[in-house]
Fold this protein.
Amino acid sequence: MKDIYSGLLSGEKKLAVIGLGYVGLPIALAFAEKLSVIGFDINRERIDMMKNNIDPSCELDSSEFEGKDISFTADLEDLKEAHFFVVAVPTPVDDHKVPDLGPVLSASTTVGKVLKQGDYVVYESTVYPGCTEEDCLPILEGISGLKMGEDFKLGYSPERINPGDKKHTIKNIIKVVSGSDAEALDNVAKVYELIIDAGVHRASTIKVAEAAKIIENTQRDLNIALMNELSVIFDKMGINTYDVLEAAGTKWNFLRFYPGLVGGHCIGVDPYYLTYKSTELGYRPEVILSGRRINDNMSLYVAKRAIQLMIQADKQLKESRVLMMGITFKENVSDIRNSKVVDLVKELHEFSINVDIVDPYASSEELTHEYGLSLTPASEVRDDYDCVILAVNHKEYAQLGENEFEQMTSERPVIIDIKGILKDRINKFTYWSL
């Protein structure tokens, strides 16, 4: 199996990426600059788009596809040509916050059907420590009839893709790599070093690499939870949270985190993989789950404050109209998965409040499919909203001021600015931020 690296470099062997979402596609295209790549996804509609140089996630320009040695396919037969498999499928949680390993186990089944002597399988999907070896490996071995170590090698290299971030890209972020033995680690590291300019970090074991990924986002989740809890406290004290953070941030070692809605498929999901495994082992995490509880409840908190301020402004809730600006899980991306703004909309609906939604990035069709909601066309945006909630800090909203809000609101409007980007710019209206 020592010839896997040279075989890939010479073009005699191909690398396959299974799962071409916001993680898998950039990886596949990066490898396709150096190697011959097969991009595999079960969604044929997405495959057709990529064949036409279109990124279904709307993250990459068509130019990113040009000059790359890559073929896109949804056919299992095509995967038989590959010898180095990178699995980059999503790992969500279900409605009960329990890890859904369905996609990664299904991908393991797919790879198992085409696995050959001398092949490598590397997982990038975020999982709890032990999942690669305890849950995925038995499927690979069972279906292929091969034995890891003797017939094929296993690795894990957690994804570090940050959607919407054009500065921290795959090539300039250090990549954690791991392997089932020293030979596997060396080959996995050398393959990734082909595309990672920042270099790789060789983790001692696969479990260490899995754990490292989990705590990256758990740490961020907890720090944001602290900021959210502080914002609730400071609101009761009549203090602006961002003024406090600005003052505290003058100290060199103060960590710069900010309050907000924590959604998406990383920070709002990954900690549950760790707490699930920990609970299974007999230890119930207190701090991690507390942070998750705070962040999961922030949509309810914002909705409650919006309603309170509307009542104080003498608005009749059942007759009121709210404009929700932004519905994606974070700024400047089209992804609506696990968007906490959706929870905010639904909470307002519970009070029979009419909510119109606008977003320059989101797809109305996808929003309807996922949540039963829809975007309001630009031509139907009103000029008499009783409350405007700036929910997502899209770049298109960065320069908004009182004149723009005056044109879209009724008398005595309430402006809710979740991320505080309008701070010191709204003086004529009732204004509130986290």
User: Anything to note?
Assistant: The chain has a mean pLDDT of 94.
